Amino acid sequence: MENRSFYNEILTEHNLRPAHKHDLADANLVLEGVNPSCGDHLWLKLKVEDGVIRDGAFVGEGCAISQASADIMLDLVIGKETEEALELAKRFFGMIRGTATEMDLEELEDAAALQDVAHMPARVKCAVLGWRTLEEGVG
Question: If we measure between CA atoms, which residue out of 88, 56, 65 comes closest to residue 11?
């Protein structure tokens, strides 16, 4: 139970005080993500140079899970090569499908807080929205 409480704190913090929810005027890659079943809608804004995600942000509206997940994702991928970011997305999707290893969970850091979403089918699309948008845009 203590673990679940810790994960809830992570999600709450990223939802209430997202570090990356703002405009990014010098973004050179702007990607739209929509989850029509829930009403989540975000614009992922990335500054990619020489195959590296130098900066990133998102704007839009959605449920706490979609917003926290997008913020956590940006924490993880900023500063990474696009291939590394796509590998993290692959690990994240594996976690949601229930096939992640302990190593995957360690690599996902705070994103592992979303592991329980795998047991809530209605919320899976919320959790993967930012990640799927990233994958479609840089993959």
Answer: 65
- This prediction has a pTM of 0.93
Tokens linked to 73:
């994702």
Burial class (CB in 10 A: 0-12, 13-18, 19+), 72: buried
pLDDT tens digits for range 83-114: 999 999 999 999 999 999 999 999 999 999 99
- Using CA atoms, how far apart are residues 82 and 49, in angstroms rounded to an integer? 10
pLDDT value at 117 more than 80: yes
Size of the chain in residues: 139
Q: What is the CB-side half-sphere exposure of residue 4 using CA atoms within 13 A?
A: 3
CB 77 within 8 A of CB 20: no
| Nearest CA among 47, 69, 48, 70 for reference residue 59 | 70
